[in-house]
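Q: Given only this backbone (177 positions), what sequence would you predict?
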């Protein structure tokens, strides 16, 4: 067959040069919630659904001062604690501060059953994955020139998860980590 017709296999992790351009474009996004959601995805490796369900008390620090993210019980039904890059923590704190100005009632979280005040809400509704991830990521990809032949962004939010995993593995972390 024609060699030109073979699908190009996209690496699951985002190559460093593309990642650098993409993160610069994400930093320029106007919406604090979109920026924070993508930075948390980039630096935590959390799933989109987990990030959407973060509560306003999800962020504290390890004893050494490193920001620590509490990822809600999800697939594994157990809360996870992960270190978070200061850039992502700062973006998250900005959205949390905005949320503290609104005195909305907590929602009962569908997975934990606990009353939860979510970070990513607007007008009493949880923001969608489409709004938090897909829309701004397409915009950032276009801005960074990371598009396919049809002008679609080449980076999905899930690839941040593979990128974090790859980077941890390169630095000697166990596979389970």
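A: Predicted residues:
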């Amino acid at each position: 067959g024609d060699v030109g017709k073979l699908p190009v296999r996209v690496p699951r992790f985002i190559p460093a040069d593309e990642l650098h351009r993409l993160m610069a474009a994400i930093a320029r996004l106007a919406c604090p919630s979109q920026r924070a959601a993508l930075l948390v995805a980039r630096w935590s490796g959390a799933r989109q659904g987990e990030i959407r369900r973060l509560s306003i008390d999800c962020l504290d620090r390890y004893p050494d001062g490193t920001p620590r993210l509490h990822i809600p019980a999800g697939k594994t039904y157990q809360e996870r604690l992960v270190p978070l890059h200061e850039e992502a923590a700062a973006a998250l704190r900005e959205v949390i501060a905005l949320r503290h100005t609104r005195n909305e009632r907590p929602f009962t979280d569908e997975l934990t059953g606990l009353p939860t005040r979510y970070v990513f809400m607007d007008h009493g509704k949880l923001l969608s994955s489409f709004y938090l991830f897909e829309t701004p990521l397409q915009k950032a990809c276009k801005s960074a020139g990371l598009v396919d032949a049809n002008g679609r962004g080449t980076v999905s939010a899930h690839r941040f998860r593979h990128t974090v995993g790859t980077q941890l593995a390169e630095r000697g972390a166990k596979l389970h980590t």
